[in-house]
Amino acid sequence: MISIQNEDFDTGAEIRALQGNGRVGAIVSFTGLVRDLAGHGDVTAIELEHYPAMTQKSLEAIVSQAKERWPLLATRVIHRIGYLAAGEQIVLVAVSSSHRQAAFDGAAFIMDFLKSQAPFWKKEYVDGVGHWVDAKESDGAALARWRR
Predict the structure, then answer these.
(1) Which of 91, 94, 123 is CA-nearest to residue 107?
(2) How far is residue 12's CA from residue 105's CA, in Å, rounded to a whole number?
C-alpha cells in the first residue's frame, strides 16, 4: 500500500499491520527524518511538492519492481508532502517477507529508488531562505547497485 500525504504517520502501527500472517518471518522498515543540517547551514524545514498522478504511478512501479525481485509478502510506503519542520518524519518504507534477506534487500531497493527516481521536488529552508535541492550524487550511486 502506498500513501502520499501531508499528515504524520504512526510507524509502530504501520509495522504491526504488516505482521498479518504466520508466513511473515521478517519485517524491515526505514523511517526518514528531516535533517536539521545541510552543507550550507542549519535547515529549519523543507517543503516537498509533487505531481500526484505521476508520483503515485512512479511509486507503484518501484514497489512492483521490488516484488518481482524478492518474495515480499507485503509493502507499506508513506511519503509526506508539504511543509515539514526539521526532525519530522518524511518517509516510511516497510516490507515483510518470510526471510530476512529478502526483507532487507526489498526495503533498501525501494528506498534507493524513492530517493533518486520518485518525482518529488524539495526546497530546503536555511536561515529563512528557501533553496531548491538537486539529487545527490550518493543517491545515484546507491541506485546503481540495483541496476542489472
Answers:
(1) 94
(2) 21
Tens-place pLDDT, residues 87-99 = 999 999 999 999 9
Cα–Cα distance measured from residue 86 to residue 124, given in angstroms and rounded to the nearest whole number: 10
pTM: 0.90
Instruction: Spell out the residues 6+ positions from residue 13 whose beta carbon is closer than 8 angstroms to its own.
Output: none
Q: Spell 78-117 as b/e; 16+ CB within 10 A means b.
A: bbbbeebebeebbbbbbbbbeeeebbebbbbbbbbbbbbb
Using DSSP's 3-state secondary structure scheme, residue 106 falls into: helix
Q: How far apart are CA 144 and CA 1, in angstroms?
A: 25
- Using alpha carbons, select from 122, 124, 46 the residue that is nearest to residue 85: 46
